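Loading example: each entry is read as four labelled lines plus one structure line.
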Amino acid sequence: MTATADTTAGPQSRLQTRNGIDFAVADLGLAEFGRKEIRLAQHEMPGLMELRREYAEARPLHGARIAGSLHMTVQTAVLIETLVSLGAEVRWVSCNIFSTQDHAAAATVLGPNGTPEEPQGVPVFAWKGETLEEYWWCTEQLFKFTDEQGNIVGPNMILDDGGDATLLVHKGVEYEKTGVVPTVEDEDLTVSDEYRIILDTLRRSLGEDPQRWTTVASDIRGVTEETTTGVHRLYQLAEQGLLLFPAINVNDSVTKSKFDNTYGIRHSLIDGLNRATDVLIGGKVALVCGFGDVGKGSAAALAGQGARVIVSEVDPICALQALLQGYQVARLEDVVDQADIIVTTTGNKDIVTVEAMARMKHQAIVANVGHFDNEIDVAGLGRYPGIRRLNIKPQVDEWVFPDGHSIILLSEGRLMNLGNATGHPSFVMSNSFSNQVIAQVELFTKYEEYNKDVYRLPKHLDEKVAKIHVLALGGELTKLTKDQAEYIGVDVEGPFKPEHYRY
Amino acid sequence: MTATADTTAGPQSRLQTRNGIDFAVADLGLAEFGRKEIRLAQHEMPGLMELRREYAEARPLHGARIAGSLHMTVQTAVLIETLVSLGAEVRWVSCNIFSTQDHAAAATVLGPNGTPEEPQGVPVFAWKGETLEEYWWCTEQLFKFTDEQGNIVGPNMILDDGGDATLLVHKGVEYEKTGVVPTVEDEDLTVSDEYRIILDTLRRSLGEDPQRWTTVASDIRGVTEETTTGVHRLYQLAEQGLLLFPAINVNDSVTKSKFDNTYGIRHSLIDGLNRATDVLIGGKVALVCGFGDVGKGSAAALAGQGARVIVSEVDPICALQALLQGYQVARLEDVVDQADIIVTTTGNKDIVTVEAMARMKHQAIVANVGHFDNEIDVAGLGRYPGIRRLNIKPQVDEWVFPDGHSIILLSEGRLMNLGNATGHPSFVMSNSFSNQVIAQVELFTKYEEYNKDVYRLPKHLDEKVAKIHVLALGGELTKLTKDQAEYIGVDVEGPFKPEHYRY
Amino acid sequence: MTATADTTAGPQSRLQTRNGIDFAVADLGLAEFGRKEIRLAQHEMPGLMELRREYAEARPLHGARIAGSLHMTVQTAVLIETLVSLGAEVRWVSCNIFSTQDHAAAATVLGPNGTPEEPQGVPVFAWKGETLEEYWWCTEQLFKFTDEQGNIVGPNMILDDGGDATLLVHKGVEYEKTGVVPTVEDEDLTVSDEYRIILDTLRRSLGEDPQRWTTVASDIRGVTEETTTGVHRLYQLAEQGLLLFPAINVNDSVTKSKFDNTYGIRHSLIDGLNRATDVLIGGKVALVCGFGDVGKGSAAALAGQGARVIVSEVDPICALQALLQGYQVARLEDVVDQADIIVTTTGNKDIVTVEAMARMKHQAIVANVGHFDNEIDVAGLGRYPGIRRLNIKPQVDEWVFPDGHSIILLSEGRLMNLGNATGHPSFVMSNSFSNQVIAQVELFTKYEEYNKDVYRLPKHLDEKVAKIHVLALGGELTKLTKDQAEYIGVDVEGPFKPEHYRY
Amino acid sequence: MTATADTTAGPQSRLQTRNGIDFAVADLGLAEFGRKEIRLAQHEMPGLMELRREYAEARPLHGARIAGSLHMTVQTAVLIETLVSLGAEVRWVSCNIFSTQDHAAAATVLGPNGTPEEPQGVPVFAWKGETLEEYWWCTEQLFKFTDEQGNIVGPNMILDDGGDATLLVHKGVEYEKTGVVPTVEDEDLTVSDEYRIILDTLRRSLGEDPQRWTTVASDIRGVTEETTTGVHRLYQLAEQGLLLFPAINVNDSVTKSKFDNTYGIRHSLIDGLNRATDVLIGGKVALVCGFGDVGKGSAAALAGQGARVIVSEVDPICALQALLQGYQVARLEDVVDQADIIVTTTGNKDIVTVEAMARMKHQAIVANVGHFDNEIDVAGLGRYPGIRRLNIKPQVDEWVFPDGHSIILLSEGRLMNLGNATGHPSFVMSNSFSNQVIAQVELFTKYEEYNKDVYRLPKHLDEKVAKIHVLALGGELTKLTKDQAEYIGVDVEGPFKPEHYRY
């Protein structure tokens, strides 16, 4: 037993080092179950497995030190394994305090052939239910690779989901340059609790090494970003001329946004409703707020189970699509008293107000698969005079209004497909994670061709990811003849569509 | 604390008596959670709640002593409450050794307002995972009501699912008349283990009271039977002139067979697949064996999630329905190597042989929602040379063939919608249980009008059950004018269709 | 040119005789187009073609003289050819004054290899747009076969649709026995115009031969009846002990009622709407009145084109099915002002009243696929004060209410899938017509085994018809092992289900 | 009668002038029927009608002289009326020699209140079945407006579909500048027959007025273009710096490309199949070549009728969409012998080769809804040794191969939704035509803000068009609060999505 648990107070008490691997996870004993699930998931992630085969010899990520911040789940474990098999060194954290699957984290630390005594995997710093202090401490650990001489060095690549790893570097550099990390008193603006913790983290780290973040940043060849929110931040940085390294926007690959959002939700919305409530969906009236990619998947799933779906929409183009697919389009306030199930998919806030909930049918189910928990006015619910909250089981609460009617709120208004079910299935994640791997290879090997700007993956790589998954599902692709390709003005190998094509 | 636990060996050690209620359940401490789920389920069982309202004053089951043998779940708890609210005394057991939900059993013993010290509910004898000895001991307890003088008396009604309570009475009477309960030596035929236990039970009970079962039988006004198997037994008894009291076949009410089987499975198949495997159903090839009511629901559910469904069928009429609904119809042996998900729905045996499983795709999922576990050759699988079984989690096993490919078998081949999910949702059960309540009232109050034969509920009662559930879903029914009713030769209040109408 | 046109006034002026074949059709010149369509239809009627092959040698209808009264369409032409190829002599009329396809009638007279000068086909007496006098004169011609000696003899089999041929025989025998055909003065009851014509027809025929109808009836081995209405009459006759020969009810074969009504309408409703109006169905609100077999097909068709379907229903069981399939269920009066398309499927009358039409949206489309034109109050529409009728094109009328809004009425309220499109497609008719052929063979060859009662075809023949069509669609049927068949208590060759099975 | 028919040979013999309106149509007698259909279509084109209301006072096209080249159908007639009601003077031709609906052309000339003697409508030069000479003569007439002084002047706006009107101007200017219209001998390249006719047309017109086309071009403020092909030409001209005036690409508005192609085809494919063949679609195997917008609509339509759909695709992203929606994806050559219906939707050529047709099932139906008739190798079919063509009815041919099997080819391989049915329904066209009107207003009133380049309509106008149609279908749009709009960074009135959003 070579483990050495840090005994100082705070998150670092979680830190262990065994067999040269440092990590902080809930329980290595969960690794065996994690290993089983990872093995099964590999088969459902043909994109990642194909990339392993394709790059088995070339190992294009040899020399890469990747700092990864993305939900530490079974699927992510397969992603991490893939990055390693392409030659990379990897350190990992979750990008959300609740989203770690502890068995996946444990198995990732252990590695396929490791033992609890001699783990052979990857340093992971993540457990389900971190505090915000713990979360940012974990994120900080991403930047502590060790070189062959045993010196601490930074990563040369970031793989980000939501942009927190990237944020830390950029803020670190910013304050390093201004010479001081602001304290709350320094700033006029109201600082959120979380931002205060980020500042504390940076202050401490710059206390240790005043050039820490410029050093880190100078090594980084680029970042590949998974989601809308993170991409939004990157575009803002680029516009302001503050982006420190090139970025690839993985989110807007077709095989990401049009598959994750629609087909992933089609699967996991139903799954979450069933696990949470066991209520028959057939015959019920379901109100789906929003008919974007997520709303389209939600409506399809509910209709596929025999519900009658009503859609509310702001955007008339999406509303017209809903109508032409046979859905009723109405305003929430006009139909909310008829709905048995209310699903928010908008990415906006205040979609389901407490006034709306006060008017709902008894035991109406309220669920969010959009973005943040402010799609539903959970805070307002708690403040409603005379309301009572009855917890039925984890992530399922009955809120009883003074008039006696109640609503069933799932996952406290947070993403219920993660909270009440297990999120997107492996096959869906295989698409977006394949884009991630390809983007990492692209930036790591060709970073000199990129400016400090935000790029999308070229369409032929999007098509490559799709092709692997088509073949995995048994689909057979037709091949253009040279003559046909010329006729429509494309290459026989693609890309097959203009950039603005909508799919 | 007035509980008195019987300390003799055997099942009776489970027996407790508190506040005049005898019972044997896993843990009364689970009652609170059970109570919550029952409360939520009430809203989803409008048929039962409407019958409570309708009969609130009349209490037509006043004087009824009902012996109930039917899966002791949350939904059944709502059924039991309903029978009680209509005036009945009730005793209850599960009709399957695994199907009891312990929290539902506990809450039923406690009753809505009882406490663990002073339960006010119903005697339940059921826990998850009974042995067969325990099961038949429990069933025997059904027949021990107490009259006002404190004497043990039998029930005057049976509510049965599968016919085990009815079997015990009929076999008891048979052996009482022959004067001896056979032992294995008495009989030429091979006696199954379970039947041996039934004989032991009867021998013991007749040892206590040699006229026990004729006494019991003479009090019974009738039985209402829930399922195909039990109904089959009843018709056999009736044909042989051995049926001891009238029976109502609830199974073949339209609101039972065409709703349970199709819409219940449409819900719970998906649910079971998701909880067991988290595998994306969309894009997969699903082979559904059988296109009867259950197969129709299965295919709809899988297609609704974006799977490509292939149907195998024996009956050309059902096969033609499958084709005209857009499904491919093929023989299992011709397509089993293309399928990702294989679902049996036939009620027959040897549908998926071990040879078929040997030819399946790697990690193909094999699931049964038909009837018994012999639809899939689980026994053959265990005997396959060189095969290994890896348990992934409860009710999910990976069986690895010597060539390295594996299949994922759910619930060991037993009904996976019960084993991997929670069975039919409340709303679906509200339909069949409403038929049960109506049938109990009918037979209890009008038993003199019935012969010792098997009856179906008249169509107007089937329509009544449907009507309650239509209104609960917000549907509005059209009313025939007198003129219109005459024109098509029906009554304005129905029934609206001839007996042979197929829906 | 050997044709001899009867020059006397009345229908007989239509009568021609060429090459020993007597007939009365619109124009033999249409035969070539009819021939093409018949040839194409043969391929879509695999049931009939398979029966031709199966019985090619046995020719079990040799000696049969079949009087057929059924819409003289292309599909019926293939039926007639089939009966002939099985050995029968055939005479034919349409069972509806509008339903004859003149090119089909012409081609049937000509036969596959005939010429206008030397037709080699079947005597047909039918044209589009007969008067009622003509209609009954045609029907009378059914009974005038010629034997080898050139004597007029009656048929020995009837193939009926709606029962008019059967009616004529029964009424003829009735009045022959009473010795007088009543005139209007003889009877108290109000006699409809059509019945007056029937009486005239019988009076004339009995004038020619006073034993005509008892002679005819005595030869007839049985009748096979296609539809609900005809079957209803037969059951009435049987109950009154008046049925003169055995009857087979083809209508209630599963391969008739569950296929024709549902899948036939799913096809032809859409077809009729499109040909009549060219209005986009997607996005529209469609109200389907009735959710029986026809309503189920209608709703599926409209939803399949992207309409939002609302169902109105009287029968709560059917209403519950509609709800569980995701349709809204409402009363016509509550939603009629929201609907763009209103379809009646009930077989009842006064479903869409003129008051309802007065409240409809501008240019709402009103269409009937139920039964008679009284489902929609067309008569009331004509009497509405100030209403104007604008004919748009044949079978499409715009009725403009005084307030300026209009409705589009299709086919004057009669069956619009026939009036605005071409009725059920060949493949659907192949199912019911195969039942007809099988029923003819059964009754003709085994008539001695039947009493003067109404029979349904045994289930194994229903399954046989289904099997042929399954194979024609490329479906492959699974075969039960002997062991499996015993396990579920059926024969390996079927029938596979109990009589009361609902499919 | 003031009509003066030009008696010279050639197309000009069609030319008439009555009541100051010159025109060339098939038969003014068809105007009454055309008028009825236009009136009904108005209600189905709410976008156009709303624009009439909105601009009733402003009449923003006052002063516009629009040369329109777009299929002269009933829907186009409503478009023309709309342009006129906004103040424009209009001259019109069809952009396809077969696509004119003669009754629509006649009614457009007549105008709503005109008479054959005194038409009050618009000069139309179009009839069904023009020769190519006639076609280009008609197109030339577009450019002959008359000013108040009676002088011939050119248009100041073009509304184009396919770009032929724009082509004539550009080629005219080109040759005017080079000083000579080339003859075949002048050019090395092979000149198509059609191009030869264009050159003849230009030569004749420049013979009449050597500055004709520079004069015309100098007046034109811009062109709005309807389709892919025309847009493609415009982008080429713009890239080469040859574009003579600004252009708006209407084709790539979402409310055009994602609605026309998908929902229009979903309607009209089924319609064409039914009118052409009456074959039951349910139960059949349908191969859809291509899964772009048109393929998606085709597959939905066929599946909605109960066909089993197989998709062939080149583009793996579209193929993956097909799989995840439950369709089989295969290569044509692997499944063509299983398909009953083959539909091409690709816009490419040689999709269905004669070799493929030689291997098809007997009576397989081959239909194109893609683009040109070269999607199917019709020419190769005609050259196949021993093949016979049997015309069944207009636009329906049976081609019989020497081995006896035949295929049914619709519309000779041209767009069968136009050839066998009536094309896109009015409601769909209302979307694209509303974009046209808006684009005309935009360019006519703000042409000075535009360069000689190709523009897409701004998203808020796309959303405006959608909104009108949402409301027309009874949909109710939700309104963002100011707070919500800020939260997602949009204006409360939209546009609601970034440019790259895919819908």
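Chain A touches chain C at residues 282-283, 303, 306-309, 320, 323-328 (CB under 8 Å).
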